[in-house]
Write a structure and sequence with these properties.
The chain is an alpha/beta fold. The chain has a single domain, classed as Sugar-phosphate isomerase, RpiB/LacA/LacB (Ribose 5-phosphate Isomerase B, Chain: A, 3-Layer(aba) Sandwich). Helix content is 44%, strand content 17%. The protein is built from six helices and five strands. Helix 1 links the parallel strand 1 and strand 2. It starts with a strand and ends with a helix. The relative contact order is 0.19. The structure holds D-ribose. D-ribose (RB5) binds next to helix 3.
Length: 141
Amino acid sequence: MKIVIGSDHGGLALKNNVIALLQELGHDGEDVGCFENDSVDYPQFADLVCEKVAKGHADRGILICGTGIGMSMAANRHDNIRAALCSEQYTARMSREHNDANVLCMGERVTGPGIADEIVRTWLGTSFCGGRHLRRIELFN
Ligand code: RB5
């Protein structure tokens, strides 16, 4: 899959771990920044990722900040973006099965690298159930 990924300074280290995992899993990852530890504004990176997903230039997006909260708030303001803030494997799986989440948000200050690895593997490997869940997500827009 083509995965576009972005972070602010609070998520930069975890983002680099996730990029390595995407490579290991054979995905085509595109990093839209940030690239330095300098303080930046997370909505700018949420917008870059969500525009690519919403326009079909990427299959899915991943956004990481300190808590994941700001990124998920910014992402869910975009039409056709269903962003899920996940801090463990169960919600990562359910966000795909029931919500067809197309953007995954995580918080580097909340979720350690081992749990983040499990979340990303699960989230990328789980399909949407459709059926009644499709009817529900169609009510979003
Ligand atoms: C940056 O300090 C921090 O506010 C940001 O990474 C994020 O946690 C916001 O939701």
